[in-house]
Amino acid sequence: SLGDVAASFVRGAFRTERTTVRRYDPEQDMVALDIRVVQGAPFRIANNLISADVRIRTQDQPFRIVGTDQRLGALGTLEIPRGSMLFRSSRFEIRRGVVDFADGTRINPSFDVAAFTEVRRSSGFTGPNWRVNLHAHGDLDAFRLDTSSEPALSQEDIILLLTMGMTRAEADQLQAGDVTESAALEALATVTGINREVRRAVPVIDDFRVTSQYSPRTNRTEPQVAVGKRITDSVRLSAATGLSDSRQLKTAVEWRVGDQTALQAAYDNVNASTASSLGNIGVDVRWRLEFQ
């Protein structure tokens, strides 16, 4: 399952080489430690897996390093007010995170982190989009990763969506040759890592896709590039432009009002049947119902 794969992945990231553990003898202790840790500002963690601000929670208790020179532990709580993490080549925005240290004899923190990402598989702004949620919790010995999506997908579809940019049904269509050029091009860009490398090189954007879309001007499918940027947790900007001579342009701003409702204002310069140079402006209201 996705949870087992993720747990194995995370444990591997924190795994160290096996060492010989000596039997603890209190008589051999030479130094007793009780150090209180304070911070003037949040410190930052930045590596290939996570980039986040971390601050010490001082409301309940101070953060302390305790133990001896033979047996070291920590007591206290760390909070992650914001940040991002990388999983399956997808960047997840951390909504909340808490790391508890409650063992005075060893460093074994417990985690509770919630994050989300958006997968925009379709080249058009009206196509299917998914919001994938991750809930990581446990400790280094027993780590769990729960997943969900809006609209709802199976665990298999979620991992395929994060890895290849398509669901099982779309993958079956691709294998049978019954899939659009747009989906095939997006899947190729996702698998080869082009999208990921561009996002890494241009960190100001969080979504980059090479895809294709039918052009009413030329009556054919043409390649295009789409970019996006999340301004807040509920507001997102996006734009797409063609790579052919027609230079079609689409822009949109989407406001997520609630779990089932979203408002979208869009503009494009696609005018197949009019000579107007202004373009088209529109507003969409999206309302989703789920049945169980």
Task: Describe the protein in words.
Helices cover 18% and strands 47% of the residues. The chain has 292 residues and is of the alpha+beta class. It has two domains: 1-176, no CATH class; 180-292. The strands form two sheets. Strands 1, 2, 3, 4, 5, 6, 7, 8 and 9 form a nine-stranded antiparallel β-sheet that branches. The protein has a six-stranded antiparallel β-sheet with strand order 10-11-12-13-14-15. A hairpin with a 4-residue loop joins strand 11 (220-230) and strand 12 (235-242).
List keywords for this structure.
47% strand, 2 domains, 18% helix, six-stranded antiparallel beta sheet, 292 residues, disordered N terminus, nine-stranded antiparallel beta sheet, 5 helices, alpha+beta
SSE inventory with pairings:
Elements: H1 2-14, E1 32-37, E2 43-46, E3 50-57, E4 63-68, E5 72-87, E6 90-103, E7 110-120, E8 129-139, E9 143-150, H2 155-164, H3 168-176, H4 181-192, H5 194-201, E10 207-215, E11 220-230, E12 235-242, E13 249-256, E14 261-268, E15 280-287
Antiparallel strand pairs: 1-4, 2-3, 3-5, 4-5, 5-6, 6-7, 7-8, 8-9, 10-11, 11-12, 12-13, 13-14, 14-15
